[in-house]
Amino acid sequence: MDLLNYTLSVEPKSMEHYEFVRNHFDFPVDIDYQKFMECDLNYVVAVRMENVDSPVKFLLGVSIFSLFEDKIHINYVAIDKEYRRKGINRAINELIEDVAMGNYIDYLTANIREKNLNSINSFTKCGFEINTNRICKYQNGDVKVHVFKKIII
Ligand SMILES: CC(C)(COP(=O)(O)OP(=O)(O)OC[C@H]1O[C@@H](n2cnc3c(N)ncnc32)[C@H](O)[C@@H]1OP(=O)(O)O)[C@@H](O)C(=O)NCCC(=O)NCCS
Fold first, then answer.
1. Residue among 2, 18, 121 whose CB has most ligand 1 atoms within 8 A, to mutate
2. Residue range 19-32: mean pLDDT, rounded
3. Rounded to a whole number, what is the distance in angstroms from the first to the last CA of the chain?
4. Ligand 1 touching residue 89 (CB < 6 A)
5. Most buried one in 46, 50, 151, 153, CB count within 10 A?
6. Tens digits of per-residue pLDDT, 93-125?
7. Is the pLDDT assigned to residue 7 strictly greater than 80?
8. Residue 135: CB partners within 8 Å, gap ≥ 6?
9. Strand, coil or helix: what is 98?
10. 32: CB partners within 8 A, 6+ apart
């Protein structure tokens, strides 16, 4: 499957979670979030669409985030290849922003591989800034770009 192959090469963990969600959850609404893996701090957002030919909804994308005392960290996001560039990641981030506001949290953060320009663009387009003071590397040596967004209430 295209989505699997492409995403696995870009972000292996995103795909693991995408598959996990695809196989384990049944979300009744188009975009919603639930606790993930029985852990109070971790949530999964699922975006589902109703097929025009059938009432069965299918999964377009997932995002996993962790709620901390002072910030929400977005761990993973993967959108089905056929449905990218349609603002789905933006919609997910807006939902996560609402969660942040509801919990009096000021910041959203995420780490992105430097070479993953689509993802960096998608986050900056949603108002995330690149933290140039924080330069780290992934285990395989890829540069890790830290992005953040201050929530304005
Ligand atoms: C990165 C990813 C989550 C973005 O999701 P998305 O729903 O397509 O993003 P959005 O539609 O909300 O964001 C759109 C904006 O991001 C930027 N962008 C996204 N994909 C882009 C691309 N292929 N080329 C250039 N810009 C791109 C553009 O600025 C775009 O705005 P525009 O369409 O108005 O020009 C998606 O491409 C994906 O699942 N990639 C594979 C997994 C992955 O890399 N996950 C991120 C790990 S941190």
1. 121
2. 74
3. 42
4. yes
5. 46
6. 999 999 999 999 999 999 999 999 999 999 999
7. no
8. 143, 144
9. helix
10. 45, 46
| Dist CA 12 CA 17 (whole Å) | 9
Q: Which two tokens stand for residue 145?
A: 């770009």
What's the length of the chain? 153
Q: What is the pLDDT of residue 21?
A: 74
Considering the segment(s) 3-150 as one domain, its CATH architecture is 3-Layer(aba) Sandwich (3.40)
The DSSP letter of residue 142 is P
Ligand 1 proximity of 11 Cβ (cutoff 6 Å):
yes
pLDDT at 52: 62
Q: What is the maximum span of the chain, computed from C-alpha positions, in angstroms? A: 50
- The two three-digit tokens of residue 76, written as one number: 């993973």
Give, using CA atoms, the residue closest to atom 17 of ligand 1.
122
- What residues does each domain of the chain span? 3-150
Q: What is the pTM of this model?
A: 0.87
